Amino acid sequence: MLSLKSIWTIWKGDWKPKTNEERTIPLCDEALDILKGLFNNRKSKWVFSNTEIPVRSIQKSLKTASEKAGLTKHVTPNMIRHTFATHALWAGADIKSVMDIMGHKNIETTNRYLHSIPETLKRTVQLVQNLKSVKPLETGGSEK
Q1: Which residues contact 111 (CB under 8 A, 6 or more apart)?
Q2: For residue 137, what pLDDT is reported?
Q3: What's this model's pTM, rounded to 2 decimal places?
Q4: Is 56 within 8 Å of 44 (Cβ atoms)?
């Protein structure tokens, strides 16, 4: 079911989603607000173009946008995908959900986005420390 807080990736002309499949991707409230603002302030019928010609090159548009933002590093669409996946995993998202949002067919592809950072390592150790007050489960076997 398509929600008002999601986008639907579909084949359009010579463009197709990376996995060759159409899918629905949920949006966070902030992304939805940004898209609504862009839609309401558009200068043509297209949200991402100021002319009557639609955007044909995401890479070129991203380059223009990053230059206007004052970024000196070359930015690619895949960098944005990678950043999203990495941040979602760092924030505690489960890997299966990230895999589905990214459109990956194989969990190993999503595993490439897993990186340890000091904060998550510390949080992992803290989880084990928090178990000290939990008694081990009975296994049902007899002790020798």
Answers
A1: 95
A2: 66
A3: 0.64
A4: no
